[in-house]
Amino acid sequence: MKVLMLTLQNDPPNIDSGADDENQYKNYGKTLRKMINQCLKKDPQERPTAKELLKHDFFTKKAKDKAYILKTLVSDSGPAVNPQKVRRVPGSSGRLHKTEDGTWEWSDDDMDLESPEGRAAQSERTPRIEERQALAKDIKRQLSRDAAGISTEPEELLDDKSSLTITSNDNPDKLSPISKEQKVHNSTDEELHLVLRLRNEQKELHDIKFDFTIGKDTSESVSRELVEAGLVDGQDLVIMAANLAKVIEKREKQLIFRLNSGCAPNEAPCDKSLLGFAQLTLLD
Protein backbone atom coordinates (compact mmCIF):
# COMPACT_ATOMS: atom_id res chain seq x y z
CA MET A 1 0.00 0.00 0.00
CA LYS A 2 2.86 2.38 0.81
CA VAL A 3 4.38 1.76 -2.60
CA LEU A 4 1.09 2.57 -4.30
CA MET A 5 0.66 5.73 -2.24
CA LEU A 6 4.18 6.91 -3.04
CA THR A 7 3.59 6.22 -6.72
CA LEU A 8 0.37 8.19 -6.74
CA GLN A 9 1.69 11.09 -4.64
CA ASN A 10 5.04 11.57 -6.38
CA ASP A 11 5.48 13.38 -9.66
CA PRO A 12 5.54 11.21 -12.78
CA PRO A 13 8.97 10.23 -14.11
CA ASN A 14 10.66 12.13 -16.92
CA ILE A 15 13.46 11.55 -19.38
CA ASP A 16 16.11 12.30 -16.75
CA SER A 17 14.68 10.01 -14.06
CA GLY A 18 16.69 6.99 -15.11
CA ALA A 19 19.84 8.83 -16.16
CA ASP A 20 23.13 7.69 -14.68
CA ASP A 21 24.55 11.18 -15.16
CA GLU A 22 22.75 14.51 -14.96
CA ASN A 23 24.03 15.51 -18.39
CA GLN A 24 23.34 12.17 -20.04
CA TYR A 25 20.31 13.41 -22.00
CA LYS A 26 21.09 17.11 -22.18
CA ASN A 27 21.30 17.05 -25.99
CA TYR A 28 17.68 15.97 -26.35
CA GLY A 29 15.52 18.88 -27.55
CA LYS A 30 12.34 20.31 -26.07
CA THR A 31 10.12 18.67 -28.67
CA LEU A 32 11.37 15.19 -27.83
CA ARG A 33 11.27 15.86 -24.09
CA LYS A 34 7.68 17.07 -24.33
CA MET A 35 6.62 13.95 -26.23
CA ILE A 36 8.29 11.65 -23.68
CA ASN A 37 6.69 13.49 -20.76
CA GLN A 38 3.28 13.02 -22.36
CA CYS A 39 3.90 9.30 -22.67
CA LEU A 40 4.82 9.08 -18.96
CA LYS A 41 1.64 10.67 -17.61
CA LYS A 42 0.11 8.88 -14.61
CA ASP A 43 -3.39 8.96 -16.01
CA PRO A 44 -3.63 6.62 -19.02
CA GLN A 45 -6.30 8.87 -20.52
CA GLU A 46 -3.77 11.70 -20.74
CA ARG A 47 -1.21 9.64 -22.63
CA PRO A 48 -1.18 9.95 -26.44
CA THR A 49 -2.28 7.00 -28.54
CA ALA A 50 -0.15 5.47 -31.28
CA LYS A 51 -1.97 7.50 -33.94
CA GLU A 52 -1.49 10.71 -31.95
CA LEU A 53 2.20 9.98 -31.55
CA LEU A 54 2.63 9.61 -35.29
CA LYS A 55 1.12 13.08 -35.69
CA HIS A 56 3.44 14.59 -33.06
CA ASP A 57 5.70 17.46 -34.15
CA PHE A 58 8.79 15.35 -33.51
CA PHE A 59 7.77 12.89 -36.21
CA THR A 60 5.98 15.20 -38.65
CA LYS A 61 8.49 18.05 -38.67
CA LYS A 62 11.82 16.60 -37.60
CA ALA A 63 11.97 12.82 -37.71
CA LYS A 64 10.62 12.37 -41.21
CA ASP A 65 12.71 9.28 -41.91
CA LYS A 66 14.45 6.45 -40.11
CA ALA A 67 17.92 7.90 -40.69
CA TYR A 68 17.12 11.02 -38.64
CA ILE A 69 15.82 8.97 -35.71
CA LEU A 70 18.92 6.78 -35.70
CA LYS A 71 21.20 9.78 -35.92
CA THR A 72 19.39 11.77 -33.22
CA LEU A 73 18.60 9.06 -30.69
CA VAL A 74 21.47 6.65 -31.22
CA SER A 75 24.44 8.22 -32.92
CA ASP A 76 24.65 11.82 -31.73
CA SER A 77 22.36 12.61 -28.83
CA GLY A 78 21.70 9.14 -27.56
CA PRO A 79 23.21 7.99 -24.30
CA ALA A 80 26.58 6.33 -24.50
CA VAL A 81 26.40 2.59 -24.10
CA ASN A 82 28.89 1.62 -21.43
CA PRO A 83 30.31 -1.91 -21.63
CA GLN A 84 28.70 -4.04 -18.96
CA LYS A 85 30.01 -7.18 -17.38
CA VAL A 86 28.30 -10.17 -18.94
CA ARG A 87 27.13 -12.83 -16.52
CA ARG A 88 29.44 -15.74 -17.01
CA VAL A 89 28.10 -19.25 -17.28
CA PRO A 90 30.11 -22.47 -17.20
CA GLY A 91 31.28 -23.62 -20.61
CA SER A 92 34.03 -25.34 -22.47
CA SER A 93 35.70 -22.11 -23.50
CA GLY A 94 35.36 -18.35 -23.24
CA ARG A 95 33.23 -17.85 -26.33
CA LEU A 96 29.66 -17.54 -27.58
CA HIS A 97 27.46 -20.61 -27.76
CA LYS A 98 24.23 -20.96 -29.72
CA THR A 99 21.39 -22.29 -27.61
CA GLU A 100 18.40 -24.39 -28.59
CA ASP A 101 16.04 -21.41 -28.64
CA GLY A 102 18.19 -19.63 -31.24
CA THR A 103 19.84 -17.16 -28.87
CA TRP A 104 23.54 -16.81 -28.06
CA GLU A 105 25.14 -17.26 -24.65
CA TRP A 106 28.61 -16.34 -23.42
CA SER A 107 30.59 -18.84 -21.40
CA ASP A 108 33.80 -18.60 -19.42
CA ASP A 109 35.98 -21.50 -18.33
CA ASP A 110 37.34 -19.45 -15.40
CA MET A 111 34.13 -19.88 -13.41
CA ASP A 112 34.18 -22.18 -10.40
CA LEU A 113 31.32 -24.65 -10.80
CA GLU A 114 31.24 -25.27 -7.04
CA SER A 115 30.72 -21.59 -6.21
CA PRO A 116 27.18 -20.25 -5.60
CA GLU A 117 27.44 -18.21 -8.80
CA GLY A 118 28.53 -21.24 -10.78
CA ARG A 119 25.71 -23.43 -9.47
CA ALA A 120 23.13 -20.74 -10.20
CA ALA A 121 24.41 -20.20 -13.72
CA GLN A 122 24.56 -23.95 -14.35
CA SER A 123 20.89 -24.40 -13.43
CA GLU A 124 19.63 -21.31 -15.31
CA ARG A 125 21.48 -21.51 -18.59
CA THR A 126 19.78 -22.59 -21.79
CA PRO A 127 20.83 -25.92 -23.34
CA ARG A 128 23.34 -25.45 -26.16
CA ILE A 129 23.20 -27.17 -29.52
CA GLU A 130 26.77 -28.47 -29.48
CA GLU A 131 26.36 -29.52 -25.85
CA ARG A 132 23.30 -31.66 -26.62
CA GLN A 133 25.14 -33.31 -29.52
CA ALA A 134 28.13 -34.04 -27.29
CA LEU A 135 25.83 -35.38 -24.56
CA ALA A 136 24.19 -37.80 -26.99
CA LYS A 137 27.62 -39.05 -28.10
CA ASP A 138 28.78 -39.52 -24.49
CA ILE A 139 25.67 -41.49 -23.62
CA LYS A 140 26.04 -43.76 -26.65
CA ARG A 141 29.72 -44.29 -25.85
CA GLN A 142 29.00 -45.19 -22.24
CA LEU A 143 26.17 -47.55 -23.16
CA SER A 144 28.44 -49.32 -25.64
CA ARG A 145 31.10 -49.69 -22.93
CA ASP A 146 28.54 -51.18 -20.55
CA ALA A 147 27.37 -53.61 -23.21
CA ALA A 148 30.97 -54.71 -23.80
CA GLY A 149 31.37 -55.50 -20.10
CA ILE A 150 34.14 -53.04 -19.27
CA SER A 151 34.76 -52.88 -15.50
CA THR A 152 37.56 -51.36 -13.46
CA GLU A 153 35.68 -50.57 -10.21
CA PRO A 154 37.14 -51.95 -6.98
CA GLU A 155 35.68 -55.36 -6.22
CA GLU A 156 34.60 -54.34 -2.74
CA LEU A 157 32.02 -51.99 -4.29
CA LEU A 158 30.24 -54.88 -5.99
CA ASP A 159 27.71 -57.03 -4.16
CA ASP A 160 27.60 -60.56 -5.57
CA LYS A 161 24.26 -61.29 -3.92
CA SER A 162 22.58 -58.25 -5.39
CA SER A 163 21.08 -57.94 -8.85
CA LEU A 164 21.77 -54.20 -8.86
CA THR A 165 24.03 -52.57 -11.41
CA ILE A 166 26.77 -50.18 -10.26
CA THR A 167 28.34 -47.99 -12.93
CA SER A 168 30.88 -45.21 -13.01
CA ASN A 169 31.21 -42.20 -15.32
CA ASP A 170 34.82 -42.90 -16.24
CA ASN A 171 35.02 -46.63 -15.50
CA PRO A 172 31.60 -48.29 -15.94
CA ASP A 173 31.08 -51.62 -14.19
CA LYS A 174 30.03 -54.73 -15.99
CA LEU A 175 26.33 -55.36 -15.83
CA SER A 176 24.94 -57.91 -13.42
CA PRO A 177 22.89 -60.75 -14.95
CA ILE A 178 19.45 -59.67 -16.08
CA SER A 179 16.61 -61.98 -15.18
CA LYS A 180 14.62 -63.59 -17.94
CA GLU A 181 11.50 -61.78 -16.83
CA GLN A 182 13.03 -58.42 -17.79
CA LYS A 183 12.11 -57.89 -21.43
CA VAL A 184 12.44 -54.93 -23.74
CA HIS A 185 9.13 -53.23 -24.55
CA ASN A 186 8.89 -51.06 -27.62
CA SER A 187 5.32 -49.83 -27.31
CA THR A 188 4.95 -46.12 -27.95
CA ASP A 189 3.28 -43.67 -25.56
CA GLU A 190 3.78 -46.09 -22.68
CA GLU A 191 4.22 -44.18 -19.43
CA LEU A 192 6.75 -45.44 -16.90
CA HIS A 193 6.95 -44.33 -13.29
CA LEU A 194 10.40 -44.04 -11.73
CA VAL A 195 11.96 -42.99 -8.44
CA LEU A 196 15.46 -41.55 -8.15
CA ARG A 197 16.97 -41.81 -4.66
CA LEU A 198 20.11 -39.85 -3.85
CA ARG A 199 21.58 -37.54 -1.23
CA ASN A 200 21.24 -33.78 -1.44
CA GLU A 201 23.83 -31.17 -0.47
CA GLN A 202 22.96 -31.70 3.20
CA LYS A 203 23.72 -35.43 2.79
CA GLU A 204 20.05 -36.25 3.34
CA LEU A 205 18.43 -39.07 1.38
CA HIS A 206 15.42 -38.02 -0.65
CA ASP A 207 13.28 -39.60 -3.37
CA ILE A 208 12.45 -37.88 -6.65
CA LYS A 209 9.45 -39.33 -8.46
CA PHE A 210 9.04 -38.65 -12.16
CA ASP A 211 7.38 -40.13 -15.25
CA PHE A 212 8.89 -41.19 -18.56
CA THR A 213 6.72 -41.51 -21.68
CA ILE A 214 8.06 -43.90 -24.31
CA GLY A 215 8.16 -42.29 -27.75
CA LYS A 216 7.90 -38.78 -26.31
CA ASP A 217 10.60 -38.33 -23.67
CA THR A 218 14.31 -39.04 -23.99
CA SER A 219 16.81 -39.86 -21.28
CA GLU A 220 18.76 -36.71 -22.17
CA SER A 221 15.75 -34.38 -21.90
CA VAL A 222 14.49 -35.85 -18.63
CA SER A 223 17.96 -35.79 -17.07
CA ARG A 224 18.45 -32.19 -18.14
CA GLU A 225 15.12 -31.24 -16.56
CA LEU A 226 16.28 -32.78 -13.29
CA VAL A 227 19.52 -30.79 -13.46
CA GLU A 228 17.78 -27.52 -14.34
CA ALA A 229 15.37 -28.05 -11.45
CA GLY A 230 18.33 -28.34 -9.07
CA LEU A 231 17.49 -31.94 -8.17
CA VAL A 232 20.58 -33.45 -9.80
CA ASP A 233 24.09 -32.01 -9.90
CA GLY A 234 25.22 -30.79 -13.31
CA GLN A 235 28.32 -33.01 -13.09
CA ASP A 236 26.05 -36.06 -13.16
CA LEU A 237 24.09 -35.15 -16.29
CA VAL A 238 25.78 -37.67 -18.59
CA ILE A 239 25.89 -40.52 -16.08
CA MET A 240 22.26 -39.91 -15.13
CA ALA A 241 21.10 -39.91 -18.74
CA ALA A 242 23.07 -43.07 -19.56
CA ASN A 243 21.70 -45.07 -16.64
CA LEU A 244 18.17 -43.81 -17.19
CA ALA A 245 18.41 -45.00 -20.80
CA LYS A 246 19.62 -48.37 -19.53
CA VAL A 247 16.65 -48.73 -17.15
CA ILE A 248 14.17 -47.76 -19.85
CA GLU A 249 15.65 -50.03 -22.49
CA LYS A 250 16.12 -53.16 -20.36
CA ARG A 251 13.34 -52.53 -17.82
CA GLU A 252 15.73 -52.82 -14.90
CA LYS A 253 13.65 -52.90 -11.73
CA GLN A 254 16.41 -51.24 -9.74
CA LEU A 255 19.77 -49.81 -10.62
CA ILE A 256 22.53 -48.29 -8.49
CA PHE A 257 25.21 -46.23 -10.19
CA ARG A 258 28.20 -44.12 -9.20
CA LEU A 259 27.92 -40.33 -9.27
CA ASN A 260 30.57 -37.72 -9.95
CA SER A 261 29.25 -35.62 -7.07
CA GLY A 262 27.92 -36.16 -3.57
CA CYS A 263 31.17 -37.33 -2.02
CA ALA A 264 33.71 -35.08 -0.28
CA PRO A 265 37.47 -35.70 -0.74
CA ASN A 266 37.71 -37.10 2.79
CA GLU A 267 34.73 -39.43 2.34
CA ALA A 268 34.68 -42.93 0.88
CA PRO A 269 31.90 -43.71 -1.65
CA CYS A 270 29.44 -46.31 -0.40
CA ASP A 271 26.78 -47.97 -2.51
CA LYS A 272 25.00 -49.31 0.59
CA SER A 273 24.30 -45.87 2.07
CA LEU A 274 24.20 -44.19 -1.37
CA LEU A 275 27.11 -41.92 -0.52
CA GLY A 276 28.39 -40.88 -3.93
CA PHE A 277 25.86 -43.22 -5.52
CA ALA A 278 22.27 -42.93 -6.73
CA GLN A 279 19.50 -45.49 -7.11
CA LEU A 280 16.93 -45.67 -9.91
CA THR A 281 13.80 -47.73 -9.30
CA LEU A 282 11.21 -48.63 -11.92
CA LEU A 283 7.79 -48.83 -10.27
CA ASP A 284 5.22 -51.42 -11.28
TrEMBL record:
Residues 77-186 are annotated as: Disordered. GO terms for cellular component: cytoplasm. GO terms for molecular function: ATP binding; protein serine/threonine kinase activity. Residues 125-144 have a biased composition (Basic and acidic residues). Its EC number is 2.7.11.1. The keyword DNA damage does not apply. It is found in: Cytoplasm. It comes from the Eukaryota. The keyword Oxidoreductase does not apply. Keywords: ATP-binding, Cytoplasm, Kinase, Nucleotide-binding, Serine/threonine-protein kinase, Transferase. Residues 1-59 form the Protein kinase domain. Belongs to the protein kinase superfamily. STE Ser/Thr protein kinase family. STE20 subfamily. PANTHER family: NON-SPECIFIC SERINE_THREONINE PROTEIN KINASE (PTHR48012:SF16), STERILE20-LIKE KINASE, ISOFORM B-RELATED (PTHR48012). This is non-specific serine/threonine protein kinase.
